[in-house]
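Budget justification aside, the reviewers requested a transparent look at the raw inputs and outputs of the sequence design task funded under Objective 1. We therefore reproduce one unedited record. The lines immediately below are the structure tokens for a 217-residue chain.
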């Protein structure tokens, strides 16, 4: 009986992971396509911002390291805190899924804008600017989201049917998962603050049409 219940639980959780991942991917596609909905003036403004950002990178005036770590860590922590709080309530569950979609939109928009501006060089630049932090942050965020939805469903069933017992242990497991994801997000902030600037200094000349030199770590 317990084995069957465990298999069902794992299967349900896996289905939820697939659903959340697909939702994120749909957001990425939507974000990339959303660029076409911008006016020419808006596209030009964003283009100017990107080129100004690249100029800061080349001039060495871009904030990095300890100057940005606290801000980036707090930014990531706020996303996680919002997901955790929403997961505590049943009504917050749809908003957790909406955040997964929004996360995808932001990533897709950033990549799409770079590709629109610099073609294949923009894709290469996005590997240096967008990919490193999100390779850590996105999985952590999606895991936290699945944990939030699972806990919200547990709370809903407990209130409706009253047969799941106290919520103390599930809440502890839910919070522990969030804590582990926080560690991963702090690691993502470290990558964004210390590793990404080095990669950007190497990649910036690529889109600016200058020889690239990889700075030593």
């Amino acid at each position: 009986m317990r084995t069957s219940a465990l298999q069902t639980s794992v299967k349900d959780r896996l289905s939820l992971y697939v659903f959340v991942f697909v939702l994120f991917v749909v957001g990425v596609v939507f974000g990339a396509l959303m660029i076409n909905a911008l006016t020419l003036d808006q596209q030009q403004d964003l283009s100017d911002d990107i080129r100004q950002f690249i100029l800061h990178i080349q001039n060495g005036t871009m904030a990095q390291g300890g100057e940005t770590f606290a801000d980036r860590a707090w930014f990531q922590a706020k996303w996680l805190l919002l997901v955790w709080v929403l997961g505590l309530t049943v009504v917050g569950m749809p908003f957790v899924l909406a955040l997964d979609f929004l996360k995808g939109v932001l990533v897709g928009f950033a990549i799409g804008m770079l590709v629109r501006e610099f073609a294949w060089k923009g894709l290469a630049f996005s590997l240096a600017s967008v990919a490193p932090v999100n390779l850590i942050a996105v999985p952590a965020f999606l895991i936290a989201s699945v944990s939030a939805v699972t806990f919200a469903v547990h709370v809903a069933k407990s209130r409706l049917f009253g047969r799941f017992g106290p919520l103390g242990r599930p809440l502890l497991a839910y919070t522990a998962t969030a804590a582990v994801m926080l560690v991963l997000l702090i690691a993502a902030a470290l990558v964004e603050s210390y590793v990404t600037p080095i990669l950007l200094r190497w990649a910036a000349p690529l889109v600016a049409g200058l020889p690239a030199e990889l700075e030593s770590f």
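The chain has one domain: 7-208. Residues 116 and 122 are 7 Å apart (CA to CA). Computational costs for records of this kind are itemized in the attached budget.
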